[in-house]
Protein backbone atom coordinates (compact mmCIF):
# COMPACT_ATOMS: atom_id res chain seq x y z
CA UNK A 1 0.00 0.00 0.00
CA UNK A 2 2.84 2.42 0.82
CA UNK A 3 4.48 1.78 -2.54
CA UNK A 4 1.19 2.37 -4.34
CA UNK A 5 0.75 5.67 -2.47
CA UNK A 6 4.28 6.77 -3.34
CA UNK A 7 3.79 5.90 -7.01
CA UNK A 8 0.48 7.77 -7.04
CA UNK A 9 2.12 10.80 -5.45
CA UNK A 10 4.96 10.70 -7.98
CA UNK A 11 2.51 10.53 -10.88
CA UNK A 12 0.61 13.50 -9.43
CA UNK A 13 3.79 15.55 -8.98
CA UNK A 14 4.90 14.80 -12.53
CA UNK A 15 1.45 15.67 -13.91
CA UNK A 16 1.37 18.97 -12.04
CA UNK A 17 4.94 19.89 -12.84
CA UNK A 18 4.49 19.29 -16.58
CA UNK A 19 1.94 22.12 -16.86
CA UNK A 20 3.50 25.35 -18.02
CA UNK A 21 3.00 28.45 -15.92
CA UNK A 22 0.70 29.76 -18.65
CA UNK A 23 -1.42 26.60 -18.47
CA UNK A 24 -1.58 26.88 -14.70
CA UNK A 25 -2.63 30.55 -15.03
CA UNK A 26 -5.40 29.66 -17.49
CA UNK A 27 -6.65 26.90 -15.18
CA UNK A 28 -6.47 29.22 -12.16
CA UNK A 29 -8.53 31.89 -13.92
CA UNK A 30 -11.12 29.32 -14.91
CA UNK A 31 -11.25 27.70 -11.46
CA UNK A 32 -11.63 31.04 -9.65
CA UNK A 33 -13.69 32.82 -12.30
CA UNK A 34 -11.16 35.54 -13.09
CA UNK A 35 -11.73 37.88 -16.04
CA UNK A 36 -9.23 40.68 -16.49
CA UNK A 37 -8.51 43.32 -19.10
CA UNK A 38 -5.30 42.59 -21.04
CA UNK A 39 -3.26 45.07 -18.96
CA UNK A 40 -4.55 43.83 -15.63
CA UNK A 41 -4.19 40.22 -16.77
CA UNK A 42 -0.48 40.80 -17.37
CA UNK A 43 -0.08 42.40 -13.93
CA UNK A 44 -2.01 39.63 -12.16
CA UNK A 45 -0.07 36.99 -14.08
CA UNK A 46 3.19 38.38 -12.67
CA UNK A 47 1.78 38.15 -9.13
CA UNK A 48 0.55 34.62 -9.83
CA UNK A 49 3.99 33.56 -11.14
CA UNK A 50 5.68 34.80 -7.96
CA UNK A 51 3.14 32.97 -5.83
CA UNK A 52 3.53 29.74 -7.82
CA UNK A 53 7.32 29.95 -7.52
CA UNK A 54 7.03 30.39 -3.74
CA UNK A 55 4.60 27.47 -3.46
CA UNK A 56 6.74 25.21 -5.67
CA UNK A 57 9.93 26.08 -3.75
CA UNK A 58 8.24 25.37 -0.43
CA UNK A 59 6.79 22.08 -1.68
CA UNK A 60 10.23 20.96 -2.86
CA UNK A 61 11.38 21.42 0.74
CA UNK A 62 8.34 19.44 1.86
CA UNK A 63 9.22 16.59 -0.51
CA UNK A 64 12.77 16.53 0.94
CA UNK A 65 11.36 16.42 4.48
CA UNK A 66 12.72 19.85 5.39
CA UNK A 67 9.29 21.20 6.35
CA UNK A 68 6.24 19.39 7.68
CA UNK A 69 3.45 20.94 5.61
CA UNK A 70 2.78 21.56 1.94
CA UNK A 71 1.32 24.60 0.21
CA UNK A 72 -1.15 24.96 -2.62
CA UNK A 73 -2.59 27.56 -4.94
CA UNK A 74 -5.80 29.13 -3.70
CA UNK A 75 -8.10 32.08 -4.37
CA UNK A 76 -5.46 34.56 -3.16
CA UNK A 77 -2.71 33.56 -5.62
CA UNK A 78 -3.20 36.60 -7.88
CA UNK A 79 -4.04 39.18 -5.22
CA UNK A 80 -2.10 42.34 -4.56
CA UNK A 81 -0.82 42.70 -1.01
CA UNK A 82 -3.39 45.34 -0.02
CA UNK A 83 -6.23 43.12 -1.29
CA UNK A 84 -5.45 40.30 1.11
CA UNK A 85 -7.40 40.00 4.35
CA UNK A 86 -5.54 41.51 7.31
CA UNK A 87 -4.48 38.23 8.87
CA UNK A 88 -2.66 37.30 5.65
CA UNK A 89 -0.74 40.58 5.73
CA UNK A 90 0.41 40.07 9.32
CA UNK A 91 -2.04 42.53 10.85
CA UNK A 92 -2.63 41.83 14.51
CA UNK A 93 -6.03 43.00 15.62
CA UNK A 94 -6.44 44.29 19.17
CA UNK A 95 -8.23 42.01 21.59
CA UNK A 96 -11.80 43.01 22.22
CA UNK A 97 -12.82 43.74 25.79
CA UNK A 98 -15.84 41.82 27.01
From TrEMBL:
Cited SMART domains: Inhibitor_I29 (SM00848)
InterPro entries reported for this sequence: Papain-like_cys_pep_sf (IPR038765), Prot_inhib_I29 (IPR013201)
Highest taxon of the lineage: Eukaryota
Keyword Zinc among UniProt keywords: no
Cited Pfam families: Inhibitor_I29
Swiss-Prot/TrEMBL keywords: Signal
Signal peptide residue numbers: 1-18
Residues of the Cathepsin propeptide inhibitor domain: 25-84
Protein name: Cathepsin propeptide inhibitor domain-containing protein
Origin species: Polypedilum vanderplanki (Sleeping chironomid midge)
Amino acid sequence: MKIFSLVLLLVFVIAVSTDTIEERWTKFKKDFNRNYSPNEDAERFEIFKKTVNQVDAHNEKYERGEVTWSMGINDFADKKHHELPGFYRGVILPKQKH
